[in-house]
Amino acid sequence: MKTGDFTGAIEIIKSDYIREMIAKGEREDKRGSMDYRKIELKTGIIDHAEGSAQVDMGNTRVLAGAKIVVDEVHSDTPDQGNIVVSAELLPLAAAEYEAGPPSPEAIELARVVDRGIRAGNCIKLEDLFLEEGKAWTVYVDVYVLNYDGNLFDASTLAAMAAIANSRLPAYKDGVADYKERNTPINVNNIVASCTFAKIGDSIVLDPSGVEESAMDARLTIATDGKVVRAMQKGLKGSFTLKEIEELVDAALDKHKELAKHIEEAKR
Amino acid sequence: MASSLNKPELIVNGKRLDGRDFGELRPLKIEANVLKNAQGSAYLEWGNNRVLAAVYGPKEAMPRHTADSTKAVVKCRYSMAPFSGLGEHGRTGPNRRATEISKVTKEVFENVIFLNEFPGSEIDIFIEILQSDGGTRAAGITAAAVALANAGIKMRDLVYAVSAGRIGEHVVLDVDMIEDNYSDADMPMAISPKSNDVLLLQMDGGLDRDQLKKAMNMVVEAGKTISKVQRDALKAVYENR
Description:
The complex is a heterodimer of chains A (267) and B (241). By secondary structure, chain A is α+β, with helices and mostly antiparallel strands.
């Protein structure tokens, strides 16, 4: 992800242009300040995964795949399975991305997406229990394929949709039978995140790549439509307490619009 | 969060396990200027947390490609000692959690330091958690702010941090380790007290909008106490000289 630290002249000019535009209440693509770009969702596109989903949010594209494996239970949670969400910025997704160990930005993205889905009890971990000592672990891996801003919301949506799209393998004699995947996973709660960019004194939802290059601060709010499940503020800028309250209301309002995509992914 | 199977009763007769009220901070002590080599340093005890923060710089940014010719760069390392926890030996070296905390902590101080005054240089912030009992990122930021001031680095404000959370129906301040393991929400915040601008905000669990507002108000109220302990620590350096 870009952080707004540019040395290139063109980038500075473009970033200044966006700042001036946003200050006038306009956006480069004519959207309202609280509008998402067009969101398109495709599910079940990786047959070998237990569930999968690809999200296009404007020109941002992410792909999430769920694999479900038999695991030993943790000694402190003997009645539960586990869910692990991670995210990776692939080097093919933007010129700035490089192969190698994950950057702090990539780690932050993965942890924030995981936190929202975990805190929202999107799958009841008790539902993943198999028998004494054994439970399912659901691994959801989000692959960023093309970067154009707002990876947090696109990744949460894709991860959530991949979960909703999942079918559990049959469990026989202590192992998973991946040829027999008939049981849809029970989605207990739907979490969706809204990411806001603060640019100067203005705030916009769903920042594009060029808007992110101009933003001073970022706030991601994951909700289930009733309560806030996770939040993460990023970058050096700040938010006032009043702004946070207003953005929480906006995120709670937007949940319905995002959740309908998850409903579509269920099978 | 741990399993609900062996969840202890966290609130008994309207008091928390350690006897605190819902909006009460754990005892907080800070001493500034505790390390000889660092430009600035602070040692903090907050409940059972023990934290050491040190600041080096401004100095020439190294390696050179990390330098910014228009302003100073802030580098931050939050790290937990392998002996800091009550349980097993912790793993040494940075893990994903520490990387994330280092990043958001760095962003807090980028906001308040006058970076334009030191182009081409770096300011290093080291936060070592010697003993952990919940709320260590807040403790680290609170200590690092004192260390930066002790280093004489010009800042807009002396930042403080603390977390609020929820236990059942109760919104509570300054969540400790056992509460954090079984609580229903945890929300660390860092605030610039002059404006009450929010520089760090993280949260997980579940908070409705009223609980969230209550939690934010608790953090701002607690800031008065935390800020005073920070300022007194800095004052004591000069009084004892």
